[in-house]
Design a protein that fits this description.
Elements lengths: L1 H27 L6 H18 L5 H7 L2 H15 L6 H17 L5 H12 L3 E2 L2 E2 L4 H23 L3 H18 L6 E4 L2 E4 L47 E12 L2 E12 L3 E3 L11 H7 L4 E7 L2 E5 L6 E3 L2 E3 L11 E5 L13 E4 L4 E3 L8 H8 L5 E7 L2 E6 L4 E8 L7 E3 L2 E5 L2
Antiparallel strand pairs: 1-2, 3-4, 5-6, 5-11, 6-7, 7-8, 8-9, 9-10, 12-13, 12-19, 13-14, 14-15, 15-16, 16-17, 17-18, 18-19
Length: 430
Amino acid sequence: MQRDVLCSNEWRRATIAALVAAVLCIDALAYEPDPALRKSLGKTVKQELIEATPQAQRLSVRLSFSPRVSLRDYERLAKKAGFPAYADCSIATFVEVTNWQIIQGKDVTPEQIKQLVASCESATTTAIGPKPIPQAQGDREILRGMWQRNLAFVGKSLRDEALSAFIRKDAAQQFYQIHGEPDEWHLTAKGFQRKPMAPVVAAEVPAEPGGAIDESGVVAPPAPESTSSTSTLVYRQTDEDFDIVMRTVTRYGLSGVYVENEIYLRLKDGRIKRRFSENPYALDTQLSAARDPENWGNWSPSNASLQVKWPGDASTVWERWFMTRPAQRGQRISGLFQSADGFGGGRVANFNTVAFDADGRFTWAALKGGDTGGWLPAYDDRRRAGRYSIDGHAIRLTFNDGTVEEYAFCFYPKDNEHFVIGSNHFTPLD
């Protein structure tokens, strides 16, 4: 009898332990892969990766890269490391580690991986987005990471310097979207740590045509003694406490139905601002909230959606929203672009066409045709042209007459030809 009771108690404890383990496992998983969705997504992602591959390796990727095999290999990596493959923090850490290893050209230790996972698990969001990560995003991130690893391996094995340089650049760009400049970080047993920042010293340059060099490395024209406005300089904080998101909405007007992407400043502390266009680094959020409370709300994750609450309104759930991308310091844009609406602010309020060139010049003035010769006079216009510098989520326009204006800036997710200045969206003008 006593043995029966003991066995019964042991069975009960084992059952409870198994149930607890099952619950913890379910909580840890971002998703259970759906085979139908995975098959469809795999075809789409493979084609995207082929197009992203350098021309010389495209045929090889087309023939050898298998989404099914890549996901299976990823599962083996996760199992070997001791983490559930489709947990939020397993996927996010895989992305971080993959990019960092390619950038540095060396492996990450198991202790460092464990610390990255632990840091992710203690946070409310992951390095690649809110929890839980949906399958469409998770599978896409995994397949992209395996594609990066494959190309890095091929480049090293074949001693193909061009391919190795390509994939290092790609990894650096992906890491930048997560943390910022790779050179500003190092990986320790406690996870990613920011390097101490050296004090910035303004450099003196000779008084030559082209003027002083601003902090982004862009040579700006000399300003006159008097200027019509002053502004703080654009700067990108290495530990940003915000991001810029867009929400896709359908509107109804006199001309019919149209789709619009609205821009929002989303702070990591749970606040969100609408009707937003200013340089976010120069924004005093507390003062802005006090002066403009109706345009400040609160947000929280809701599965793959966002739940947003504005003052006086009921909470709404955003199903169609996406993250934008910041620019790299000193990044250039080249071409002629247009906005559906006139630009919302400053000296260029009545213009919806802008030209940028790779030398750091811009003009809102009317262009005389499409050839280079016709552009030059427009770039010399004192009131509607000048030089630009982009850094992170801000753009600085220094007009030829010395006026300086700054606005929010971000790229759309997939390319650098669609972007936002202030609150207006720009697309290439063919």
